[in-house]
Recover the amino acids of this structure.
């Protein structure tokens, strides 16, 4: 797989703490392989990740975006921008996330308590 996730010709890298290695190694390799790298980071780390991309000389070839923006926009799009459907899709996402935590993580406290209003 080209990144943490691969969708079509896009390699998606998700990191809480972006560093040079993501850009200089992983994203550079993606570009050589014909992929379009995208780095998702928390909102508070977007400026730092963008700066690292610039210092790595990859800022014109690598998309840097907040995880919150990416997920939120995609949920709205999948839900057809319908308030009722957004809630349903968000619930599905949280349920899927919790299933992945159950299977892949030793620390079950990473699970998200799903609000009753979803």
């Amino acid at each position: 797989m080209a990144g943490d996730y691969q969708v079509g010709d896009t390699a998606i890298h998700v990191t809480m703490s972006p560093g040079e290695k993501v850009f200089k190694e992983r994203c550079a390799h993606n570009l050589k392989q014909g992929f379009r790298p995208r780095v998702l980071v928390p909102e508070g780390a977007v400026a730092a990740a963008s700066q690292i991309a610039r210092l790595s000389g990859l800022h014109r070839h690598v998309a840097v975006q907040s995880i919150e923006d990416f997920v939120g926009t995609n949920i709205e799009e999948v839900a057809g921008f319908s308030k009722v459907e957004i809630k349903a899709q968000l619930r599905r996402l949280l349920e899927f996330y919790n299933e992945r935590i159950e299977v892949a993580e030793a620390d079950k406290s990473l699970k998200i308590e799903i609000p009753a209003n979803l």
Notes: The chain has four helices and four strands.
